[in-house]
Amino acid sequence: MIVTTAAEMRRIDALTIESGIPSATLMERAGTGAAEALLARFPHVRKTGVVVVAGKGNNGGDGFVVARVLKRKRVRCEVVLAARSDDVRDPARAKLRAWQRAGGKTTTITADDLGPLQRALARAGCVVDALFGTGLTGEMTGLPAEAITLVNASGLPTVALDIPSGLDSDRGAALGVAIEAELTVAFAAPKIGTIVYPGARYTGELVVVDIGIPDDVIAAVAPMTEAILVADAGALVRPRDPESHKGTNGHVVVIAGGRGKTGAVVLASRAAARAGAGLVTAGVPASEQESVATRLLEEMTAPLPDDGVGTFAFTSRDDRGVRAGAAQPSTPGADAYAALLDGKRALVTGPGMGVSPATEQLVAWIVTHAPLPAVIDADALNCLAARPPQGAWGTQERPRILTPHPGEMARLMGVDGAAVQADRVGMARRLAAERGVIVVLKGARTVIAEPDGHVAINCSGNPGLGSGGTGDVLAGMLGGLLAQGYPAADAARLGVFLHGYAADRVAARRGMVGLLASDVIEELPAATAALAP
Length: 533
Known about the structure:
The protein is an alpha/beta fold. Helix content is 44%, strand content 14%. Strands 1-9-18-17-16-15-14-13-10-11-12 form an eleven-stranded mixed β-sheet, sandwiched between helices. Strands 4-3-2-5-6-7-8 form a seven-stranded parallel β-sheet, sandwiched between helices.
């Protein structure tokens, strides 16, 4: 499902009008579709009535159409206008006149007199928010802010037209104050701000109304953002070849874990197998191999250079050259790691590996030299932030999927966590483009950004995923999909959706509280089968 920015939607509207469909016609279709969606969701309004709170722009025009359609269906409706009638602009002005010709009641409010709105709210069973659309950019103040505050305080179900008034349509942030809708009716396509959090919280249920935008217009604008729904993820699932075997289904290496954190490598390895990889090898510090091997039955383990305290040892070639002049044994370099990667199809690294000078060098080597598609997660991301290699980190031949949570993303970008959360799509898009990687910015409505600017917003998952180890599971799943030959962008989209979808299935049976990472792993085969077309 495509999702648009405000600028993309303006371009879509302009091209549609140029194609011969008048703005007034689009407004009529939008308002009619919104009225039908309102009646389907809130049938009680046939008895209790509706109040439309409208502004002077096109969003107000949509509201006038809603009011007229409802009146024609014998639903008691009145319009409260937060502007002077003379200030209403065409084509909204024509829709206001049509409402008035139909005998509709319009009351004007001012900053000095909000009484008409208060009384209208007291008479109604539902509110239609038609104050502002996607063009809003500044903070809400004065009359609009006061009207929104009254509507929110009324306790009435509110239907927002296109986007809740006061919401930034690109970032999802409330511009001071915003309508808290139970239903938002998007016209043609949802806006990014209604899909991402915190905007999704203001949006409530989201319904999309087709207003007749020509396909060639959508193709010409080519919106760069999409939302991943069940059908989208299901279309990515590949059927298993009847003649496939463990070799053809791919071999994943998971370089992760360290003393006290071996559970992370166990979870990631098991998730890679449950995601469909034919073979999985957990590469761990040598001293931790036995403890990991006792918890992995279907997966293999391999010892890697150990610093003597249960974490990875690694020294770059340059550092070993300096030490060669001294009569001391050289610290292990890339050879052991390269040997483990030989013949494999995908790599996962980071969960539980710790951050040290050695792991920083190891991660830098993996990112710039490992010949496999790689998932970079957890401590590996913190190593990258501390010791970032120059230039691009990923290429088309050696794709890299980075899976930061907001704190890790902030460290990678050199900003604070609040800046990341204020513009999740923008931040993910920027890092992906700068480093040539796929960024999976985790959180509610995980954002998946590609180097070319395309972004997908995931719509599965629930708060039950807020427990230890679920990120390790996601990293392993992505590695399992890469090993099976999924292109990196498809693996990211499918893996993220499947991770949330499996958690949703568990939560539906057992609840969200107490949902564990291992629960998600065990649900993966059934969830995958349910997704498959």
